[in-house]
Amino acid sequence: MIMNHFEITELQRTTANLVRIGTIVEADYDHALVRVKIGDLLTNWLSFTTLRAAKVTLWCPPEVGEQVIVISPGGNLAQGIVIPAMYQDKFKATDSKSTTTKLSFADGAKLEYDSEAHHLQATLPGGGKTTLVSEGGITITGDITVTGQIISTGDQVAGGISQINHTHGGVEAGGSNTAAPH
Fold it and tell me: Are strands 46-48 and 81-86 parallel, antiparallel or unpaired?
């Protein structure tokens, strides 16, 4: 089979468009779509991949300015799928250690684990708050160091002794208070 000039040109175009690298220039997060600039070309609105999208979901959308890969079935960019993201001069890697997994946010918050040091650290910027909701309770095994106040709306039990319901022996009932702890 002999191909004519048009067929060869079309084959070259579609082959070149199978895998392209570009930069996100627009995002529609309500519909999980982005537009990518590839050289002088601006794509249509394209879907981007995620790690999970069924019973377990992960929402971590790519941002404007991120460099991405566009995979286009049959070389048709209109059917492209965006795979985020690639480190670049504008957005450098935040670590270089192979045993570290780190999630870094624009406001300075970080969640990182170093499997070599067995160390998990969560850091929030000044004024940040952490809320844990666990109606079944929370169990911590290990020593706890707290810098700051502990405020509780319920009883605190230490060594089997309730802070709300404990009694002091050897004290006469009446209007007097016990001495401060020493």
Answer: parallel
Alpha-helix runs per DSSP H in the chain:
5-16
Instruction: List residues bridging with 32 in a β-sheet.
Output: none
Of the ranges 21-35, 73-87, 135-149, which is most confident? 21-35
Of the pLDDT bands very low, low, confident and very high (cuts 50, 70, 90), residue 182 is low
Enter the tokens of residue 19: 């895998």
Q: Nearest-CA neighbor of 109 among 94, 87, 93, 96?
A: 94
Please state the φ and ψ torsions of residue 12, each to the nearest 5 degrees: -65, -40
φ/ψ of 19, rounded to 5, equals -135, 120
Out of 2.30.29.30, 3.40.50.150, 2.40.50.230, 2.60.40.2550, the CATH code matching 5-86 is: 2.40.50.230
User: In this structure, what token pair is assigned to residue 22?
Assistant: 């570009």
Residues whose CB falls within 8 Å of the CB of residue 96, separated by 6 or more in sequence, listed in order: none
Structural domain boundaries of the chain?
5-86, 93-132
Using DSSP, state whether 54 is helix, strand or coil.
coil
Using CA atoms of 74, 78, 80, 85 in order, give the dihedral in degrees to the nearest 10.
140
Q: For 108-178, where are the E strands, in sequence order?
A: 110-114, 119-123, 157-158, 161-162
pTM: 0.76
